[in-house]
Structures are given as structure tokens and as C-alpha cells.
Amino acid sequence: MVAVAAVSSSLSPWLAAVLAGAVVWAAHALQGQAGGRTLAFALISGAVLGLVLQRSRFCFYCHARDWFDRRDPRGLLAIVLAMAVGSVGSTVVLGAWVPLPVPGQLPPDMHIGPVSGVLVAAGLAFGAGMVVSGSCISAHWYRLAEGSAVSPFALAGSALGFVLGFHTWNPLYSWQVAEAPVIWLPAHLGYGGALLLQLGVLGALAAWLWRGFARPAGSVSARSASGDEGMVAGTPPLGDVWRQLWRGRWAYWAGGLAVGLIGALVIVRMRPLGVTATLGSAARSVAAQQGWIPERLDGLDGFAGCATAVPASWLAPNALLLAGLVAGAFIAALASRQFAPRWPTWRDAVRGLGGGVLLGWGAMTGLGCTVGTLLSGGMVGALSGWVFGAAVFTAVGAGLWLLRRWKARI
Q1: Which of 306, 315, 333, 401 lies at a CB distance of 3.0 to 4.6 Å from 276, suitable for a disulfide?
Q2: What is the pTM of this model?
Q3: Which residues contact 220 (CB under 8 A, 6 or more apart)?
Q4: Complete DSSP assignment for 273-286
């Protein structure tokens, strides 16, 4: 067993290189399809995103848990940085597309949704699902590529949650969603005013999070402190830099910066980032064929966000973005020797399925998850993104508090 593990570990970087080559070949082959450039862009963008998520451990739940449990703000600051960078980039892009934002006219395809009590309920459910399953949906996708025992069940549970969401959609739509305001901040404040407001809120949040935080001892690496041989004027050789990319984890700020840049860049060529549209569309397709959901879902396909309408072809940008994300995360996990599959337990299955149902219902009802509704929506100035995010992190804080109380009584 030890020999097998050693061989497997030694082969991992080579397998990662082969998989990376396969992704590049697939992107090249997609050029011959209708809309091939967009499809290839989606695949490569997804692969880069998956690599960044895996190497930086960018996870909305884990970052929030670090704050609530240990008052370590670095993860949440990475999310704040991603939002700030993405907001600036998105403002530049949308300003070129819609030079004069006015109320009632929304930029096409942006994740700007209705704001209502239903959205708050969706965020609370999604946050609770994060606590139960141990991750948000985007993190479950990249952890699937690491061999997580919980993630397959969480993603299956999310599909079930989408089906449940389709069942509850029509009454919720009639009750609140149909008349709820769809608020795009630039339409009311202008691009400059909306951007200043968002950066001001993010700056205040960053200052509050950083308040009183002391960096852990040893945060400066021994390598940089001692000065290894081969350093020239404090600059490590390229080989050492390359090896450092696949050791441990990337800095929090690197993950936040990269995610923000990717989030802003993808809207130039395709829909905004979202990791639930393909899963939701697949769940809707199967459920509709089996007669498990209403034939008509009132107003659902008229909203922007992580659309769940069954596409004419599954060879679509969002599907390829998701495939690329898993492939990129798998490449990163292999290259860093962090691919560690294990057999699931009953506890893994229950956690995954139970939390996944909450995640799926929240994502379907909120028209996206922490990537689609919170990140992509918040970046473009959608009030719905900020409301959803506040509800998610409120539920995470309450859920972790309840878990601590429960464990203290055992």
C-alpha cells in the first residue's frame, strides 16, 4: 500500500500535465463548433477558475467559519477584495455597453434579481446548507475534484433541492416575487455613485474585519527570513517559484484578486460567473420528463441569474465553464498532491444530502448561489446580491453558534 501511494504521488504531477494538455486540446477542438470561440473561452476560464479556487482554498463557508470561530478575517477579506476588484472591472465593462443607466432598463444577462422576503429566505436556507454540508456549491465542485467524500452527495442533494424549489416557486412567485422591485444601483446613482457606494461599504467592512487582528506567528516563511542559497538580491530562482505554486495554499489575497478579475473578465464574452445553472437545468429537465414539477413555472425564465431553462444543446458556455472548473481543480489537486479520495461514511452521505437540499432550494429560489447571486450580482451593483449575501452569512453565523452549543452539551 505504501509503494502504491508513493507511485501515485510521484505520478500525480505528470497526470496533471496530461489533463492540462487535454483541456487545451479540447478548447482547440471546440473552435470548430458554432460559437466555438465562446465555448473555448468558457472552458479555459473555468479551468483557470477551478485552479484558483483549489490552490487558494477560496470557499465562502470556510472563510466565514474562520471568522466566526477564530476571528481570523483573512478569508472574508479575500471575498471583500474579490468584490471590490470585480466591481471596478464590471463598472468599466458595463459603462461601455450601457453608457447611460436608467431605471427600468437592465443590462442583459447580468445577475440582477428581485428583492423580497423570499430572497432573504433563500439566502438563509443556502447559508444553513453550507453549515450542514461543510461548503458552498462552488467549493463542492472543486472538492469533488480533490476526492471529497461529502461533495458527491451534496451535489446530488442540491439537484433534489432544485426540484423542491421548482415545486415551491409558483406560490412564492405569486406571494411576493412577482411584485418585488428589481434594483440596479447604477440606474439610481449612476455608475460613479454606485461604485463609490459599493467600495465604501466594502472598505468599511474590511476595516471592521481587520480591527484587532494580529497576524499569526511565523506568517513570514522561514525561507524568506533566512535567505536560501540561490537567491539573487532577494529574488528566488524560477524553479523555486514554480514549486511554491504547488505547495500548501496560495495567499488569501491572491485568491480574492484572481476571482475578482475572472468575474469581471468573463462578462466580456459570456454570461456572468455562475456554477448552478447547469445543475439546475439538468434537474429541471429530468424532473419535467418525469412529471415531478409543474409544467409552467411563472415568470422564472424572465429573470436574469443562473437560468435553469433547458438549453437547446448541453454544449453551452455555462456547462463548459463548469466542466473546466472541475478539470482545473483536478489539475491543481494532482499537481499539489492534494488529491486524496476516501470511501464515504453514512455521516458523509447524510450531511451531504441534507445540506445539499438546502443549498439547492436556496440557489433555485434565490436565482443563484454565492458565486452567481452574491459575487456576480454584487459586482454589477445588484441590490439582490447584497441582500442574499447578508442573509447567507447571518445563517452561517447562527448555524455555527448552534453547532458549538450542541457540541458543548455532548
Answers
A1: 306
A2: 0.90
A3: none
A4: P-SSHHHHHHHHHH
Looking from the CA of 389 toward its CB, the CA atoms found within 13 Å total 23
Question: Other C-beta atoms within 10 Å of 372: how many?
Answer: 30
Distance CA 134, CA 26 (A): 32
CA distance 322 to 45: 10
Residues 284-305 as b or e (16 or more Cβ within 10 Å = b): beebbeeeebeeebeebeebbb
> Strand, coil or helix: what is 211?
coil
How many Cα atoms within 13 Å fall on the side-chain side of residue 301? 9
User: Please, are residues 62 and 370 in contact by the beta-carbon 8 Å criterion?
Assistant: no
Give the ranges where 296-381 is alpha helix by DSSP (H).
317-335, 346-365, 377-379
Mean pLDDT across the stretch 339-344? 91
CA triple 369-372-375, angle to 5 deg: 100
Give the percent of the chain with pLDDT over 90.
71
CA distances from 42 to 30, 256, 268 (A): 10, 20, 11
Which H helix or E strand runs over 264?
A: helix 252-266
The C-alpha cell 471546440 sits at 30
Helix (H, G, I), strand (E, B) or coil at 232: strand
Q: In 59-68, which positions are buried (b, 16+ CB within 10 angstroms) versus exposed (e)?
A: bbbebbbbbb
CA angle 218, 220, 225 (to 5 degrees): 110
The one-letter code for the residue type at 404 is R
Cell reading at 223: 525561507
Cell of 230: 540561490
Q: How confident is the model at residue 240 (pLDDT cuts 50, 70, 90)?
A: low
Which amino acid, 375? L
66 Rama class: left (phi>0) / alpha (psi -120 to 50) / beta: alpha
In the DSSP assignment, the letter for residue 33 is S
Cα 338 to Cα 55: distance, rounded to the nearest angstrom: 10
Residue 205 neighbours by CB under 8 Å, 6+ apart? 80
51 has pLDDT over 90? yes
Question: And the C-alpha cell for 201?
Answer: 461599504
Taking the C-alpha atoms of residue 149 and residue 8, their distance in angstroms, rounded to an integer, is 19
Q: Find where cell 483573512 sits.
A: 74
364 with 68: CB under 8 angstroms? no
- pLDDT of 248: 82
